[in-house]
Specification:
Length: 85
């Protein structure tokens, strides 16, 4: 999701015992998790905008979750994934 020179994406991984939490942070828009929403409307490449919607559906099938939080212009995607075994 990095955009242009100087853009940064931050990733945190936290061990929560029975689950793992992955946190991705970047500057972006709030509606990215909605179905068929594209992150960059000016992008000329093909794509349906289903990325985060598909990730959310797959995580729910595996008893995990996806959350999106917006703090000012900071966009966070939080994945909670249960450990197996």
């Amino acid at each position: 999701m990095a955009r242009g020179k100087g853009s940064r994406v931050y990733v945190e991984i936290k061990d929560g015992g029975a689950q793992v939490k992955l946190i991705f942070k970047n500057i972006s828009a709030a509606e990215l998790v909605k179905r068929f929403t594209r992150g960059d409307e000016a992008r000329s490449s093909s794509g349906s905008g289903l990325g985060l919607f598909i990730v959310q559906s797959l995580l729910e099938l595996q008893k995990g979750s996806l959350d999106v939080k917006i703090d000012g212009d900071l966009f966070k995607v939080i994945l909670i994934i249960p450990k197996v075994g």
